[in-house]
């Protein structure tokens, strides 16, 4: 339990369960309490920011503690993450996360997912910019290109020889000068 508390703090958790006395109440038997929900919603929001998940888990106030809504959101998120722990994703929703070991499993699983997400993010390039290719052409090549465009030529085929190209240019210039 102490290691789990340390792991959460190392991941950046600074919510209401940071205090050791409060943290010991997180995994009590019975439906999820406000401290457990606070940790889980924090872990899920961190995962959402890293992994762009569709599901999210809302935090709740102590007066508004509605475990069934939380359990449905958690179930959806765990399924989206592909959680392999069957007791967290199968069976009646209201019975999930009622045992202390199930709560610990859920916290450990999301901590590991968050650690993996942070590692992947650190190895991924921050911003993908399109590659810019700048071609430099000689003055002669530039003038030749501009001449071909002015005369209405498209891009010449790759297999055309310079002699064939200039022959076509000569024909075009002669036809235009005869007007």
Automatic annotation (TrEMBL):
InterPro entries in the record, alphabetically? FAM98 (IPR018797)
Q: Which GO terms describe its cellular component?
A: tRNA-splicing ligase complex
This protein's source sits in the domain of life called Eukaryota
UniProt record similarity statement: Belongs to the FAM98 family.
Output this protein's name: Protein FAM98A
UniProt organism field: Araneus ventricosus (Orbweaver spider)
